[in-house]
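Quick one from the shared queue. A colleague (R.T.) flagged Str synth domain-containing protein as missing a structural entry in our internal table.

Convert sequence to structure tokens.
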Amino acid sequence: MAPISFLIACLLAFTLEIFFSPPVSSSAALLSNSKYSSSMKDLIKLGEGCVNHPEDVSVVVRNGALYTATRDGWVKYFILQNETLVNWKHIDSNTFLGITTTKEEASDGSLYFTVSSKKYTPAEYYKDLVEGKPHGQLLKYDPELEETIVLHEGFYFANGVALSKDEKFVVVCESWKFRCRRYWLKGPRQGRLESFIEHLPGGPDNINLAPDGSFWVALIKMNQTGVRAIQSCPDKWKLLQAYPELINLLIPLGNDAGARIVKVDTHGKIIMDFNDPNATYISFVTSAVEFEDNLYMASIQSKFVGKLPLNTPEAELAPKATI
């Protein structure tokens, strides 16, 4: 074990790096209020107290139903016409995260998904963050061949993935790099991985296709300067073992987590931005899906599904957002 004096010196350097070093870019800093973002003051809480920490949401258009997966193993859905909540299926799991519907697969039945880390389990996400190595993968399930193939490796915590409206590419979220990348499925750039959007104002979690062909990206409040500092620390593991609460400086929880969602067009430009930096209305949003002029949000720290109308005067200010 390293001498305590050395660990204290590392901790001091790490803390100073977080609070006094300038961020890589203004958009990659902690979530904060911006004249270019709209608040979430019009948010409506659906199923409050009956939905246990939902991580993802998905809409079945033909049924007018909003499905969500909760941490206590339930798949529940809201009948959106009257917002009635139905307990649908229970699965024996307390790590139930993502959910999607067959309607959201490619037209040929292919399914695209990610493995966040080949090295660490979901419960060990903080180890993947501290190590800072690209262990993530993008995969495709081919229904004709009945096999799964790896399309690309080398993602820094590959998180959400979304297929474009024309099915020419998929967008993959890289949480630890504050960016999303585009993998081409068709056309002259087929098989190429390119930058889609860089320096996001938070770590991208889930991503969903919007009706107009753009994408909704849920952002996790993170400190990029602090992430860079601990990843470059030679004795990072000893430091983390001695002071495990350092992770809370990198990814705040509770009211400190805030909430932010951005809408990104097919050129990788932010065109809408909703922000609740102090978690006044909702915190730690991990997924957002648009349906009939409303944005539905899941949060692993809330016991409801958020519904944010997109046709209010407040929402109309959001398209000014750019980075």
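Residues 4-20 form the longest helix (17 residues).
The chain is about 15% helix and 35% strand.
Added to the table.
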